[in-house]
Design brief:
mainly alpha; 7 helices
């Protein structure tokens, strides 16, 4: 029973950290004015998807806390059943939220010319995705551009700087996967 409880506590810790990172990203998204921009330009993140992602995961967390407190398997499995679609909506959110392909903004470029502006026009992108050889060339070109930009940044600063805009969502996703795995193991061992 001890290993089951330590798994449950580990899952709870991972879940809480994932929730904190999610709240941090949501706060930054709202502070950046994206919520107002979303009303004016409806493409991009779907607010129901974002709310569903957060709501399902918070409801699952509540069930998980009940499991840790009572050690009853019912709230554990209910929490996992809420976590699964919550993670799915999170993957959907990240897929829509990720601004690729974009041009990287240099230190001397104005803000309206940097991230968020497409490096490849939509018509070129859609035409390339219809042709396998063109899609392959497009992917190779994007990889080469990103590697060249990273090498230029490394040459300029002496090392590659990690961008928190990519680290925080990545850590959030890794914690979500760890939470799911730990939760399933804890629920199985709780019988």
């Amino acid at each position: 029973m001890g290993s089951s409880h330590s798994l449950a506590l580990s899952a709870l810790a991972a879940w809480l950290l994932a929730e904190l990172l999610g709240a941090y990203m949501l706060r930054n998204w709202i502070r950046s004015g994206a919520f107002r921009h979303r009303r004016e330009h409806p493409e991009g993140i779907s607010l129901p998807v974002l709310a569903g992602h957060a709501g399902l995961n918070l409801a699952g967390l509540s069930c998980w806390i009940a499991f840790v407190a009572t050690r009853s398997a019912i709230p554990a499995w209910l929490g996992i059943c809420l976590l699964v679609p919550g993670i799915g909506l999170g993957v959907s959110t990240v897929s829509i939220w990720t601004p690729y392909p974009v041009a990287r903004r240099g230190p001397d470029q104005p803000a309206d010319e940097g991230p968020g502006r497409r490096a490849i026009p939509d018509h070129v992108l859609s035409r390339s995705l219809e042709d396998e050889a063109a899609a392959s060339r497009l992917v190779d070109e994007l990889l080469a551009r990103n590697l060249a930009a990273d090498q230029a940044q490394r040459a300029e600063h002496g090392r590659l700087r990690l961008d928190p805009r990519t680290i925080v969502p990545l850590a959030h996703g890794v914690l979500a996967i760890a939470t799911f795995l730990l939760a399933v193991l804890a629920a199985i061992s709780a019988r």
